[in-house]
Amino acid sequence: MTMNDIHIGEIICRKMKAEGRTKKWLAEQVGCDPSSLCKALKKNYLDTDLLYRISLAMHHDFFSYLSAYFKECQQYKQDKG
Q1: 1, pLDDT greater than 60
Q2: Measuring CA to CA, which residue among 26, 36, 17 is closest to residue 57?
Q3: Which pTM does this prediction carry?
């Protein structure tokens, strides 16, 4: 797995769909316009401030996906090392 395999925007969209939330709702919660949010969610990376605000709004730690990847890489390096 590489960092590009973690598409945080898709993860957020799946979570929104599971909770019956819309991008418009999320944009209002994080204080940005819906079109900017849509553009951001199409990327496989997000600004940390935006990711933080999304995590707060949705009561979900989206940083945990990135942290899990980091831990996996560290374990791989140890095992290989």
Answers
A1: no
A2: 26
A3: 0.82
Phi, psi of 20 (to 5 degrees): 70, 30
Structure token digits, residue 6? 């973690």
pLDDT tens for 15-59 read 999 999 999 999 999 999 999 999 999 987 899 999 999 999 999
Structure tokens at 38: 């849509």
Give the contacts of 67 (CB within 8 A, at least 6 positions apart): none
* Distance linking the first and last C-alpha atoms of the chain: 18
Tell me which residue of 79, 76, 11 sits closest to 41, measured CA to CA.
Answer: 11
Which amino acid makes up residue 4? Answer: N
- Alpha carbon distances (Å) from 53 to 20, 32, 46, 48, 80: 19, 10, 11, 9, 37
User: pLDDT-derived band of residue 76, with 50, 70 and 90 as boundaries?
Assistant: low
